[in-house]
Amino acid sequence: FFEDFDQILFYGAGPSAYAACAFSVAAPGSRVLALNPVATPDPAVAGWDDRFTAARKLDFTSRYGYAPDMVDGCAQLSLIFDPRQKPDAMHAALFRAPYATALRARYAGGNLENVLARLGILTDVVIQAAEGKLDATSFARLWRKRRDDAAYLKYLLQDVEQDGHRARALALCTNVVNRLKIQRFRKRLAELTDQTKPA
Q1: What is the pTM of this model?
Q2: What confidence tens digit (pLDDT) does each residue in 9-58 have?
Q3: Which of 22, 87, 107, 115 is 20 to 30 A from 195, alpha carbon to alpha carbon?
Q4: In angstroms, rounded to a whole number, what is the distance separating the alpha carbons of residues 49 and 82?
Q5: pLDDT over 70 (residue 1)
Q6: Each residue of 142-189: pLDDT tens digit?
Q7: DSSP the chain
Q8: What residues does 104 pair with on adjacent strands?
Q9: Sequence-separated (6 or more) residues with CB below 8 Å from residue 124
Q10: Cα-based angle 48, 51, 53 (whole degrees, multiple of 5)
């Protein structure tokens, strides 16, 4: 079946990313795009990941049981994940092949597919992965779209303020208010400005 195609991309997100990686062994020379990657749901290997409890009853000792071993024949493996999501980051770390590219999408959360679709860049990411053009630079260009995304900016502000960086929060709110019409940031900028005024 695969011999009829010049380019083959196995694509998946979360548990489907596991399947994309594992079954890529069926088409040597293919490319793989894994969002929120999963190396294996096997509790003997990934007992720290309690998200896929139903899958733990399945057999992961056979040929397709450990995805990092199954990508050996692929031409390129792109792993996109939020490093703040510890299970995703830990799964991604299990893929150690030299042709594996780890692309970090900070503050994207555990559902990258929806985030990339909302930003309007999912199709571009998939096309670049299929053509072998997805790398750190090309992804960084696409990921810049997050700078206009209210949800991303909200998480960024929360993180900055949680760390107690008032000056950074002020700079972030000023930047957002100057570029976008997001009421939350306009209100927070006014609050931060009042707090910095001398008594």
Answers
A1: 0.86
A2: 999 999 899 999 999 988 999 999 999 999 987 777 776 877 766 666 67
A3: 107
A4: 15
A5: no
A6: 999 999 999 999 999 999 998 788 899 999 999 999 999 899 999 999
A7: -GGG-S--EEEEETHHHHHHHHHGGGSTT-EEEEES--S---HHHHTT--S-TGGGGS--SSTTS-HHHHTTT-SEEEEEE-TTSHHHHHHHHT---TTEEEEE-TT-TT-HHHHHHHHT-HHHHHHHHHTT---HHHHHHHHGGGGG-HHHHHHHHHHHHHTT-HHHHHHHHHHHHHH---HHHHHHHHHHHHHHS--
A8: 81
A9: 142
A10: 95
Helix axes 112-119, 150-162, angle to 10 degrees: 120
Q: What's the CA gap between 199 and 185, in Å, rounded?
A: 24
| Residue pair 44/58 in contact by the 8 Å Cβ criterion | no
What's phi and psi for 13, nearest 5 deg? -130, 135
Please check whether residue 124 is in contact with residue 80, taking contact to mean a CB–CB distance below 8 angstroms: no
Which residue is listed with tokens 């195609």? 5
Which residue do the tokens 């790398």 mark? 135
